[in-house]
Write a structure and sequence with these properties.
single chain; 4 helices; 4 strands; 10% strand; 47% helix
């Protein structure tokens, strides 16, 4: 049943079958982002907040698509992104970003506040693979550039 009178039965069925894909991404609003009832007084503020969450969903989808596309072109079947080094064939944005969570950089400063030396936490192999796949500069993590 649909309220769109312009759809024929076959088109309505095709759109209905696509629904779980759209809802899967929106399901993350409650699970990953923890969106709860908001007590904003102005509808415009609620609309703005939900627009920001939608923007984050789009960015996550783009990140996932790019990682998966680069994996396919590099003929990489899976990446060890889970904490126990278990492999994922279809990395999610949460797994990708989780690889960089808690990575720190320390700087030793002189008397004038100038950086004398920087120390970096070691970057896991899977995180280094992600940097290469996404063509992100490794120097921000204290790593030398890749030789091509």
């Amino acid at each position: 049943m649909t309220n769109d009178k312009s759809l024929c039965l076959a088109e309505a069925l095709r759109k209905y079958k696509y629904q779980p894909y759209a809802e899967k991404r929106h399901e993350q609003l409650k699970s990953v982002f923890g969106v709860r009832p908001v007590w904003l007084k102005k509808p415009k503020r609620v609309e703005s907040l939900l627009w920001l969450y939608h923007l984050v969903e789009v960015i996550q989808a783009l990140l996932e698509r790019e990682v998966r596309r680069q994996m396919q072109s590099a003929e990489i079947a899976s990446l060890a992104l889970y904490p126990e080094k278990r492999h994922s064939e279809v990395p999610t944005a949460q797994l990708v970003l989780g690889m960089f969570q808690g990575i720190r950089r320390y700087q030793m400063l002189d008397g004038q506040g100038q950086a004398v030396h920087s120390f970096y936490d070691p970057l896991p192999e899977a995180a280094q693979q992600l940097l290469a796949l996404l063509r992100i500069d490794r120097s921000a993590y204290g790593l030398p550039p890749l030789q091509e």
